[in-house]
Specification:
alpha+beta, disordered N terminus, binds adenosine-5'-diphosphate, binds magnesium ion, galactose metabolism, ATP binding, nucleotide-binding, ATP-binding, GHMP_kinase_N_dom
Length: 408
């Protein structure tokens, strides 16, 4: 699958080659620390085809790595000083290993230094080392494309390789857990394991079916087997605010609702009438009805989507995307006016399916389109945002990219 240059909308944000990212981040490192790094590691952001708000209750999700990524240049230090610098708008942070723990440092350094802490906490490494870390990224921040996981995973892979920790697929599954701990405990954001897993374990050209109950993955070919289709990410430029409560509240409701249902039903392995299960399971707890219905229907959509992807029929996944969006909007209430505007405009312009991705409350939309229609769909989304008085969306290529890697 590709977006050919003739149909590529003018406003598509071009991915930056690894080499160029590595040069940028090496220059940032040298500027900040007056020394050379031990190497440069890159980890991608992600989009999710389907399976939203089911990762943290052990459901299956179908994310893929984006060709937009975060690069880190790293040097492990012999003392316990930790220094972090970013080419983003963030301030440099300097502290000591002992300063890092639950809730500290607040701000962006929690994602970087937090990974070192979490790797030591889980005994992936013997102790938290000092380190100099420079960061640059082409993943937009707060756009629901997981710039946070990209940062964590690049740091984790760097520290693992520099410390002799396994980085095969099993090792990467462990690192994903460490990164999620950094985000949950140090940063304090109650996210699931999907973002870190796909950033570390994805395969180029493939989507990754991740079973969040046991961490197993299956890679399904997407790009080469669907040459006439394109996945398109629409960043609505309305940043989500995951750390600030909405996501956490929603997650709590979903978890409470799922606790009332048998595992086999949640897994979708048993044929049941969703409405019957919802009615029974939420007796006396009316506020859990809609969250539960979202999970149970989303689990079924994932099941159907995986079957269609295995059959190389991406087009047939389109209606499932749109149904997922309606469920996230109506049953879970996590969409936003910007997300709805982009989804409706894309569908109105002929997209085969579209939905919000990520936790919600802003962020990005994933649209499935005929490759020849990408410019038409983009124009329609722009026009609609303009008419609705919303921020100007940006468009990103969504070829399925490779997992985190070392550049040099
Ligand atoms: P998302 O993961 O959807 O982009 P999050 O709110 O989870 O949004 O993570 C965004 C946060 O991650 C930023 O506010 C910042 O603290 C941190 N971050 C991500 N990328 C970078 C970067 N390149 N430099 C510094 N901090 C970053
Ligand atoms: Mg994030």
């Amino acid at each position: 699958m590709s977006v050919s240059s003739s149909t590529r909308p003018r406003r598509l944000l071009p991915p930056v080659p690894d080499r160029a990212l590595a040069e940028n981040v090496t220059a940032a490192f040298t500027d900040a620390f007056d020394a050379a790094p031990q190497g440069v590691w890159i980890a991608p952001g992600r989009a999710n085809i389907i399976g939203e708000h089911v990762d943290y209750v052990g459901g299956r999700v179908v994310p893929f790595a984006l060709p937009y990524a975060t690069a880190v240049a790293v040097r492990i230090r012999s003392d316990d000083v930790v220094r972090c610098t970013s080419t983003g708008p963030q301030q440099d942070w300097i502290g000591r290993a002992g300063d890092v723990g639950p809730g500290t440092p607040s701000g962006w350094a929690g994602y970087a230094a937090g990974v070192l802490w979490a790797m030591a906490y889980h005994e992936s490494i013997a102790r938290m080392p000092g380190a100099d870390i420079a960061v640059t990224s082409t993943v937009p921040q707060g756009a629901g494309l997981s710039s946070s996981a990209a940062l964590e995973c690049a740091v984790a892979l760097a520290v693992a390789e520099l410390s002799g920790v396994a980085t095969d697929d099993a090792g990467r599954a462990v690192l994903a857990r460490d990164c999620a701990t950094a985000e949950n405990v140090v940063v304090g954001a109650a996210t699931g394991l999907m973002d870190q897993s796909v950033s570390l374990r994805a395969r180029r050209g493939h989507a990754m079916v991740l079973d969040c109950a046991d961490g197993t993955v299956e890679h399904v070919a997407v790009d080469d087997v669907n040459p006439d289709l394109a996945l398109m990410v629409i960043n609505t430029n309305s940043p989500h605010r995951l750390v600030q409560g909405d996501y956490g509240r929603c997650r709590t409701l979903v978890e409470q609702a799922c606790a009332r249902v048998d595992r086999e039903v949640l897994d979708g392995a048993t044929e049941v009438d969703v409405q019957d299960v919802v009615d029974l399971a939420t007796l006396g707890a009316h506020h859990l009805r809609r969250p539960l219905r979202h999970v149970l229907t989303e689990v079924r959509r994932v099941h159907a989507a995986v079957g269609r992807l295995r059959a190389a029929d991406l087009a047939a996944v389109g209606p499932l995307l749109s149904a997922s969006h309606r469920s996230l909007r109506d049953d879970l209430g996590v969409s936003s006016v910007e997300l709805d505007s982009a989804v409706e405009a894309a569908l109105g312009a002929g997209a085969l399916g579209a939905r919000m991705i990520g936790g919600g409350f802003g962020g990005s939309v994933l649209a499935l389109v005929d490759a020849a229609d990408t410019a038409t769909v983009a124009e329609a989304v722009l026009r609609r945002a303009h008419d609705d008085g919303l921020p100007r969306p940006r468009f990103l290529a969504a070829d399925c990219a490779a997992a985190a890697r070392r550049v040099y």
